[in-house]
Every structure is written in structure tokens, then in C-alpha cells.
Amino acid sequence: MATLILPAPAKLNLFLHITGRRADGYHNLQTLFQLLDQGDQLQFTPRDDGQIQLRCNLPELETPDNLVLRAAALLKHKAAASAGVDIYLEKQVPMGGGLGGGSSDAATTLAALNQLWGLGLSIKELAELGLTLGADVPVFVEGQTAYAEGVGEHLQPVSLPEKYYLIVTPEVHVSTALVFQHPDLTRDTAPLTLAQLLNSDWKNDCEALVKQLYPEVALVLDWLIEYAPSRMTGTGASVFAEFPDEFSARQTLHKLPSQWRAFVAKGVAQSPLWTELKDAV
Fold first, then answer.
1. Which Gene3D superfamilies match (predicted)?
2. In sequence order, what are the residues at sequence separation of 6 or more whose Cβ sits closer than 8 angstroms to the Cβ of residue 180?
């Protein structure tokens, strides 16, 4: 089979509510994952010596704990002994921003190698494997903008109006572990039905704490909110403003202070991963 070149789209959490803390230390969430048309790109070239190699435009990511290699190792156990692959990761999504880049890279790897190695696993089976790598991996495997509960693994596809987003990432790295372990984190938001959530004001329960711990995130939000409704995604540091059209988003991008990294993306109902993988058959 020829080389596969596939996208790994980013995501936004349009809202993130924390409804309680579980006995195992994880948190129960209610969130809305919006998939984007922008993200990383991965290239998969088959080899027949059983070896799996990863290269990246950021060499510091070429480590054994990279989720791409961990995803490949999960499928290697189900593949022929000679099945191998060279993977090249073109990293574009800011790391540690709450945009799901690593999880999406893992999901794309699972989907690509399932096809490249002829494993025949279903999307449900791939999603279950993905959950062992991280709570956000299943939404990228299933490939639909979706409402999520639990730790993020119980998914329900949602159809949303098409919008464009300006995503801005300050030069800070937010520790997800620190945020979720912090005593001041809001953990008691009342659970709502999906219908109630879709008709309520959206918020991110991590945002107030992250703004307190990382003032640069607060600065970005204070700037963005002057132009459009804005919130933080995940545990940050990335924040986003939503616009009805691409022109408005790009107008604001051109005004952005130079010290912040940013890009414009369109919200999509279906992941471009599965579209391109189907076309590659």
C-alpha cells in the first residue's frame, strides 16, 4: 500500500462543566467537542521489517512516550510480525493548549494503521483502544463534533451552526494535572440535560482558576472579548473567539499583538480524517 498522508484535526471545548469528582480521582465532565478543519498532519509509509519509526518537525517530540508511538504499539500486537511503518508528524497545533493535538495524532495513527495493516477493526473498537491512551482520543476516532459526559468518553453527535474561530495561544504551558488537583477548582456545577446546555450560556469551569494561576491567559481573554464571545478551551492555555464568518475572524487576527500565536479555523461536523482516509482506499 502506498504512503498515507492524513490530517489530525484540533478541537475546541465550547463549554466545559465539572459536575463532581470521582472516587478514582478523575472528574465527571459535561463538554461539547467542536472539531476543526485545521490541525497536525501525519504521513505513514509501510515497511516490512516489523519496525515502527517516528520522525517529527519538532525533534524533541521523537520520544517513546509520544502518543503516536503508543497508539502504534497498541495495534502492533494485532498485526503481522512483519508489519511496520515510518511515521512523520508535522506538528502545527500548539502543545499544552487544550486543543487535543496529541490525542488527535493518536486517533489518526489508530485509523491509519488499522487500514495500512489490514486489521479490520471497527471505529468502536478503535475508540475503546484510544480511551486507554487518553480521554479525548475517542472523540477524534469517532470523528464527529459531539457532546461528552463521564471523563469525556460517552459521546453523542451534535449538529451545530457553522462558525469560524480565532484560536490564540499565549507563551505559557498550563499544567492540566495542577488545574484538576487544585483545591480552588469549581467541581460542583449542576448537571444539565443536553437540551438545557444547548440553550444556556456556555462557560468553562477551569477558566477562572487558570486566569488566576496564569495571568497571560487572562490578558489574552481580556483582549479577545473586545471583538467576539471568547472562552478558554480545555484547561488552556489556548483561548478562542467565535465569529459568524471567516472574514471577521481574519480581521481580528490581523490586529493580534505579535507576542501571541494564533490561527483561524472553521468548525466542522465531520472530521476530515475519515473523509481523506476513505478517499485513500
1. 3.30.230.10, GHMP kinase, C-terminal domain (3.30.70.890)
2. 27, 235
For the four alpha carbons of 213, 214, 218 and 224, in that order, the dihedral sign comes to: negative
Distance CA 81, CA 76 (A): 8
pLDDT per residue of the chain (281 residues) written in tens, 0 to 9: 689 999 999 999 999 999 999 888 889 999 999 999 999 999 999 999 999 999 999 999 999 999 999 999 999 999 999 999 999 999 999 988 999 999 999 999 999 999 999 999 999 999 999 999 998 999 999 999 999 998 777 899 999 999 999 999 999 999 988 999 999 999 999 999 999 999 999 999 999 999 999 999 999 999 999 999 999 999 999 999 999 999 999 999 999 999 999 999 999 999 999 989 988 76
Closest CA to 11 of 234, 203, 198: 234
The structural domains of the chain, ordered by start, are: 1-281 (3.30.230.10)
Given a contact cutoff of 8 angstroms between Cβ atoms, the answer to whether 130 and 68 are in contact is: no
Q: Is 136 a catalytic residue?
A: yes
Closest Cα partner for 76 from 54, 46, 51, 111? 51
Instruction: Please report, in range form, the residues annotated as the binding site.
Output: 94-104
Q: Which residues are annotated as a binding site for ATP?
A: 94-104
Q: Which of 11, 76, 91, 211 is catalytic?
A: 11
Annotated catalytic, 11? yes
The pTM assigned to this predicted structure is 0.95
Selecting among 40, 76, 91, 136, the annotated active-site residue is 136
CA dihedral 172, 176, 177, 178 (to 10 degrees): 50
